[in-house]
Every structure is written in structure tokens, then in C-alpha cells.
Amino acid sequence: MNFEHLPVYTLLSMLVIVLVWELFRPRRPEAKNIGWRWANNLALTVIDQLTAKALQTGLLLLAVWYARHFETGLLAEPAIPWLLAFVVNFLVLDAIGYGMHRAFHKVPALWRIHQVHHADTEVDFSTTYRHHPFEVLIMQAATVPVIVVLAPPVTAVLAQELIRTVINVVAHGNIHVPERVNRVLLWFMVTPDFHRLHHSSDRRFTDSNYGATLPWFDYLFKTASHKPFAEQATMQLGLEYARAPEDSRVDRLLLMPFADQRALRQEPLS
């Protein structure tokens, strides 16, 4: 098995695991249009994985090989322990991810792309990679130069990608995690309740909880939000606009960044 394919295999395995968890112990009531959502979300996931995501993984590994082969990276020094290189790489990339996620919410042109992810009216395993391919490519453009500068071991990059994939799928799951367990896990990882609040229709909560793997940068920069445990089951998710079933059709999701934003919000055009 090629190691560069491990993230894809891990993703598929985690999607199945979280799906089973959702079926037996859901956090929120099952949505009426669940089959329609799953079909379109997973179609976009396939497009994402076969194009932008596959390219991203390949370029990351190529960037690491180049930097280490020519000894241009800060972590390319053989004397640096693997664990130290892994931790530095993990924290730096997670910080980049946090910063880019905030930018996707604050920069109008980037929000046009990122709204595809937030337009889902529920959040479950199928939402995890409901991203426009342009978003993955932009994230790649921000990440690859950092990898070249750091040049961590290839295994450190793969380990980071595997951990990020596992936490990302779990964080999007419509899965019940006991309140006490959730509080403990929030010291170490983004939990489903923490990230679900980020998908709230209330913009105050949408513009918070940006961390995808670690919640630490939200704590550090005071962008963490919380909601009473019981309210998680009833709060409205998604956007205030683009809530009709046809808005989740995969072709509309791909064209959403180019749509008239006033029309999406059903605002007067003049």
C-alpha cells in the first residue's frame, strides 16, 4: 500500500465508523431530507477527494521530499528528533489552518467559497468534506510553502494528516458525547459539540470555534464559544439563506461562489 494513499483510506474508514455511531447514538434528531443531503454531500466529497485533495497530498509529499533532499528546511537537520519535528510541524500547520479558516469567514471573496460548507442545514459525517475544490486549493497554496520551509520528515506529515482526518470526521459527526467527556476532550481536541456550534445559523457562533483539530488557538485568541449542552440538540444549523433542498444540489454547490449573493439571500437586487 502506498503511504500517500493512507489519508484517503483513513477518511473512508472514519466516515463508516462515524456513520454507524450516528445511526446508533445520534446527538440530534434525524433530518427529513437525509438521503438527499447525503447523496449531494458525498458527491461533492468524491469530487473534492479525486481532484483537489489528491493533488494536495501529492504536492505536500513532493514539497517535503524536495526540501529534505536539498536540505533547505528548518527541520531537515538529522539531529532533530522525529517527535520534536512532528510536534512543531503539527502546531505550525494547525495555526495556519486556524488563521486561514478565520480569513475564509472575514474576507468576502473567500466566504463565497467557504459558504458551500456552511450551507448544509444539518451537520453529520457527510458534511466533513463538503468543501468547494477551490477552498482546498487555496488552503494548499498556504500550506505547501510552509512545508517547504519546515521540511519535516514525510512520516511526520502523514501522521499529522491522519490525526487531522480522524478528528475532522469525528468533529462533524452527529454523535452523542456525554457532557463530562466533552469537557475533558476539549483540552486536547475539537469535539462534535464544539464544532457544531461553529455551524450555527447565528453568525455570532458561526464566527467562532475556528479550530479544526485543536481548540487551543481559539482559546488563545479568544474566539472560542460555548452553548448549554441541551441547546445543541435544537439549535438551527446552516445559513439563514440557501436552505431549500435544491440549494444542496451538487451542481449548485459548485456554482455557489459565482452566484449573486443578494439573490442567494433573497435580498432586493436594487
Question: What can you see in these coordinates?
Answer:
The protein is mainly α and 270 residues long. The protein has one domain. Helix content is 60%, strand content 0%. The chain is built from twelve helices and no strands. The N and C termini lie far apart (57 Å).
* Secondary structure: helix percent: 55-70%
Shape annotation: globular
Number of helices: 12
Which structural class should the secondary elements be placed in? mainly alpha
Q: What's the helix-strand series?
A: HHHHHHHHHHHH
Q: What is the first-to-last residue Cα distance?
A: 57 Å
Approximate strand percentage: under 5%
Unreliable residue runs: none
Structure described in brief:
With 270 residues, the chain is mainly alpha-helical. The chain contains twelve helices and no strands. The protein starts with 5 loop residues before the first helix and ends in a 6-residue tail after the last helix.
List the helices and strands and how they pair.
Elements: H1 6-24, H2 34-69, H3 82-106, H4 108-118, H5 133-150, H6 154-172, H7 179-185, H8 192-198, H9 203-206, H10 216-220, H11 250-255, H12 261-264
Helix pairs in contact: 1-6, 2-5, 3-4, 3-5, 3-6
List keywords for this structure.
single chain; 270 residues; mainly alpha; globular
